[in-house]
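Final paragraph of the annual report: two paired records, presented back to back.
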Amino acid sequence: MLEDLATAASSPTAWPAAYPQGYAVVDVETTGLARDDRIISAGVYRLDARGEVEDHWYTLVNPERDPGPVWIHGLTSDVLEGAPLFKDIAEEFSARLEGRVLVAHNAVFDWQMIAREYARAECEAPVRQRLCTIALSKELGLPLPNHKLETLAAHFGVVQQRAHHALDDARVLAEAFRPSLRAAAAEGVRLPLHECRPLTEWTDQAATPRIGQQSGGYGSYRATNWRPSRRRPACPYPNPGRYEEGRQLKQGMRVAFSGDTSVERDLLEDRAVEAGLHVATSISRLTSLLVTNDPESGTSKVVKARQFGTPVVDEAAFGQLLGDVEPASEG
């Protein structure tokens, strides 16, 4: 099948009219993974409609705080101290993104970090859609043992030169995305695009510690407040227990989500609530089911699900299960 895809992708076929006109392949390195962590470097490869490279761009960013896991990204306080602030590179970054689909590996993370930086700078990123290469590889049915960037790169014969360097990671992803895009076009695959919603509310609650001032150590910085999650009505049904493979979901089951989804997360959660399920924000022994497209990701939810023996399904399977949810037991 993969040989057929490669042959079809390289042949002169009609390009799907619904496909985007351009892409911005992005990678950002950050001080950590939390919602108040900061971007410290960014790399962007601009691609045309068929995945050909147009140009690339890279910048360091002064995060105005300690740089976090230097042993991963290699960017020290000394290196970042003279770098521009995000607000100073926001305009150039926007020029690289405007009118394009943002492409990233685990795109929800990169998008959220970018959206937060723009919110701090009191402006919005000119991005309306994103595409996750993890989701695309699943759509294509690529035989990957896991969904790490290096695994996707190896599948397409792309050589990584500097792992966790934003520009090289963006290059590697761009080179892996091109054959993926062409294979999708050849097969008429619908690209897993979903909406990028910019953050519109941001308030400073404390003075921002400057870079090098590691007052509380890595991960302790809590200077800001983000818009709270939407409040959902309490689920009216008791929890009937865990989901069992091959059976129906039942109203009252506690469902958690982890990682990127092709359907906007809020919409997916709304569908679950409408079906009578309890949407949980964390994993516990009471969780009935975890929905994730990347069960090997190592996120805290995936790790806890493994520890507790919580059943795991992907988004497509969950969508099918939502079509026939068993009513809650009476009495």
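The closing record of the year follows.
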Amino acid sequence: MFKKFLSFALTVGSLAFAGEYWHLDPGGVTMKFLSMRVSPRTAALSGAGVADPGRVSEISRNPLAMSVADEAEFGLSQMIFGKGGADNFVSAYYGLPVGDKYTVGFAVDFLGYDNIEGRDENGLKTSEYGSYAWSLLAGFGSRSKIFNWAASARFATQTIDDETGFLFSVDAGGSFRVNQYFAFGANFTNLGFASKYESEKEAAPLALQAGVTGFIPILDRWMIHLSVDAYRRADTKAQLLIGGEVVYYDMLSFRMGYAIRPDTEDAISGGLGVTFGRVVFDYAYSPRPAFEGGNHYIAIGVKF
């Protein structure tokens, strides 16, 4: 099992030094919404925890989340932006166990902006316009207590005013639970092809993430999850993501995270999760100091 995971990690790592679209200038990728956090749990952990997915709602950004779908689950997530954000970002997800060892997963994202101020080539105001983007994802993965793997395929499109672009990409990941105290994981997301936009060549927002999670049991009721991940997108510098979660009987969770990003400022994020019966609820808040505000994340899922 460990050899399989090591082979996968080396393959993923090799992507960091290959490919036409890996070393790009800042802002050099299209459809950046595919790198935005969707799950409140991930947002509360500042993106950390690739080796320790905890909610099926993480499927759209971490294919390894299919490993936690022990029952069929459908849910909705919404991001409420602070100042300078979009008008609407909604995601729907569905995880369905197949037999005793596998899961299929699906996700849909929609991002919309309205009333954007237009400017011509001379900087003069023109009429307002809108922009929207959406994506469809389908994946397949394993469910195991030791080694897990998952892969998914995505189609995305983005329209700004009257110009539209398309993207086809794949995500894949693997994780290895060493023992009851440690787990390692790695994945790549958005490896694929983006169409031209206004005759300009575009690059997909390819990203790599790898990390380790420690599990600290407290008596019989509490469990502490501590994650440290390295993350890099094709047009950013390497980032260090740190997150912690305190779980009580798998019913109540308190989360906090911090990301060290050389490209931009960040602050402490946080949130909580509640499971009551077959209903799963999560909330998170992620500050955006540059905009004097932050984003709220809300998700609710139903198991059946």
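The CA atoms of residues 177 and 183 lie 4 Å apart. This concludes the annual technical report; the extension proposal builds directly on these records.
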